[in-house]
Amino acid sequence: MCGIVGYVGRQSAVDILLEGLTNLEYRGYDSAxxxxxxxxxxxxxxxxxxxxxxxxxxxxxxxxxxxxTIGIGHIRWATHxxxxxxxxxxxxxxxxxxxxxxxxxIENYKELREKLEKNGCTFRSQxxxxxxxxxxxxxYAQVKDLTEAVRLATKELEGAYALCVIHQDVKNTIVATxxxxxxxxxxxxxxxxxxxxxxxxxxxxxxxMYINDNExxxxxxxxxxxxxxxxxxxxxxxxxxxxEPVALSKMGYKHFMLKEIHEQPDVxxxxxxxxxxxxxxxxxxxxxxxxxxxxxxxxxxxxVACGTSLHAAMIGKYIIEDFCGIAVDVEPxxxxxxxKTITDKNTLVIGVSQSGETADTITAVRxxxxxxxxxLIVTNRPDSTMAREADSLIPVNAGIEVSVAATKSYMAxxxxxxxxxIYMAEAKSGVGVDSLTSSDANxxxxxxxxxxxxxxxxxxxxxxxxDIQACAxxxxxxxxxxxxxxxxxxxxxxxxxxxxKEISYIxxxxxxxxxxxxxxxxxxxxxxxxxxxxxxxxVYEKILSNSEEAKARNARMIALTNSSDPKLNDLFEAIIRIxxxxxxxxxxxxxxxxxxxxxxxxxxxxxxxxxxxNLAKSVTVE
Length: 622
Hints:
The protein contains 20 helices and 24 strands. The protein has an eight-stranded antiparallel β-sheet with strand order 3-2-4-1-10-9-11-14, covered by helices on one side. Strands 5-6-7-8-12-13 form a six-stranded antiparallel β-sheet. Strands 16-15-17-18-19 form a five-stranded parallel β-sheet, with helices on both faces. Helix 8 (264-272) runs antiparallel to helix 15.
């Protein structure tokens, strides 16, 4: 949520800022703005709504401001105050000399605001961020040094922030700092970039430095000064950014979401590459340091995650318990951090996050780490804050995901959990026992073979989308939707429902099929679609029976199945079939049609598929 871009150098800053904000639109936002220094004056340009509205405002003044070579920009996801022009970033002080952009939440802004108002500051917005602008301005009036003013101001701030600050009297200088919110510096020749995420700057440089908590960087076209909160000079650690600019192209697809769904066969190949070489070879996870002795002493595993990652974690629970015989708890990070949790050195805590910057999950893993737990992070961003907290790491290698609704990153997380579960079973030398029997080994080998051939099966699903499109068209006018499943595919039902509600705004809910009769069945009538995730295996007959119960209440029935059972033809109004697979592997194949179903329904309804309302790609506040 929210996005920051900054530039200081010798080029015109305006286009760089607007281009960078465009590449951050996927994060979710409801207003935008830039601040530039034009001929010695800081000028702010802001607009509510889509970024194009800001571009239209800037276009009217382009000849005036395009000569500026320094500026900061922001897309805002509203937290304090409505998404209006006044509340849009950047924010300034009374004199208008300071401009600030901010990601995060200043938790003590009310107390600071009252204090500043008593000292004569006049506020123009309802935001927490404007407090920072006034605070920096008051400190600068005292010390006449922008870096020191920012350092002193941050000592009074509570909460999370990534800040970029410019001052009219300090020419060609940006000061930036962060605490619990991502921020990086892009390094060019005679120029520097600032951004909250890589896509904003990847078209300009591949050299970058990640700012750590409570560190401050001061940038001019020719210098970068880097200190900690105690003013100790730090040595920058320069890294090479991993992505190509082509990753931000739709490559001919109508939406990024559709492109990313179609990238999933290659995502699976990337995740498996180097980790699963052959079915009769052990899994290799180079950055996982769990050995046989550590696994032997584990008495529990806790997995913390949010949203889509939580559903991937639920599948992880199922297969780790099944493969390894270790008890696993899964909990939303937002709940985990506000109750007494029991973790110790014999607890493995797994944090799952696409961005690696999810605030609740970062807090959760830090709490567990303080209790001595081994921390394993599953993330798409090995350069993220969470990855830096890890004792063990599984980078999921999904590549950049632009669409707010996660698809290929979910796929990569789920595959990673399969690899982890098998790795642990092999490292533990047993599937619930002390040593692998030949039958256990054969069973694991067959599962590994299923993983190896998964990309082809996903390609088969993607090549036969007609039934999914027809189903989407038939049910696109539904006001509500129910997804049911049992066993390992219950998380699949939850994720399918989440995808549909995220991008189509249809009220979709996932249930365990056995719970349907314990309340939700009251909602069923001829207007209610019920989608059954109906995979061959030990719960097939049970969910078939649950589907018949729903049909008896006149619900409109849809089957997602790998079965050719002729009984399904009379029971279901629509049937979406996927290739045969082992029941334990079926969630990986089953999610692809549900992603496509959500996509096509949203497209038929004319929704903004890649940037659904009110949502953010990376939730960096609690």
